[in-house]
Amino acid sequence: MSxxxxxxxxxxxxxxxxxxxxxxxxxxxxxxxxxxxxxxxVQHAGAIGLEYLTVYAFSSENWQRSKEEVRYLFxxxxxxxxxxxxxxxxxxxxxxxxGDMSTIPTRLRKSFERxxxxxxxxxxxxxxxxxxYGSRLEITQxxxxxxxxxxxxRLNANEITEDLLATYLFTGDIPDPExxxxxxxxxxxxxxxxxxxxxxxxxxxxxxxPDFTPENFDKAVxxxxxxxxxxxxx
Length: 234
Ligand code: IPE
Ligand code: IPE
Ligand code: MG
Description:
- By secondary structure, this protein is α/β, with parallel strands linked by helices.
- The chain has seven helices and six strands.
- The site of one 3-methylbut-3-enyl trihydrogen diphosphate has 10 residues, from α1.
- One 3-methylbut-3-enyl trihydrogen diphosphate (IPE) is lined by residues 13-18, 58, 62, 73, 184.
């Protein structure tokens, strides 16, 4: 049993390009360095017994970046999955992708699906990677699916509760994150887990994502342990 004060941490992995700019490296190489940072953290999270880690890798708004950057990122996702899946599986990681998969290139979508299926019985860290994810898109698709279920008689409108609606989100039965970390210092949520993070503790650090270490993560968890969560009560 882990003695951590929380089960689920969500992370906005921001600041990759600024990291590269600081070092006068090609901007996009910051994303590659960001993968190294994620790899370190996934190993650490597994070792300390965290149950759920949900990371923002590509937002539904990130399509507005240059064609070159979008292509670079999708190639990176594909290569990382190919190169890292076996080790993740050895570490018993259960991998899930959250987001609108309908506009992900078919080959990549298929490899996402295969990796989710191949790791679905793993009992270690639950790693969710948000790709083509946006909360408004997620809530809108949930509303549509609920409407279809009502129209086709599977559901009564007055049976729609918060708990039921939550099961229509990409996160399904995954518990809400107790803490949301954002690296790179921006004070915003950028359309990430707006429903699920309703009462998450926010931890924003200026550290750029490629520089974020397991020690930084532990410090955030330590701070979380001292937060006073009231949920609107006294
Ligand atoms: C986060 O880093 C990764 C993605 C959004 C894909 P950025 O690419 O946003 O890097 P900065 O914030 O511009 O430094
Ligand atoms: C949020 O970062 C998305 C990811 C980390 C994948 P952005 O860099 O896209 O967010 P904004 O544009 O600063 O809000
Ligand atoms: Mg950014």
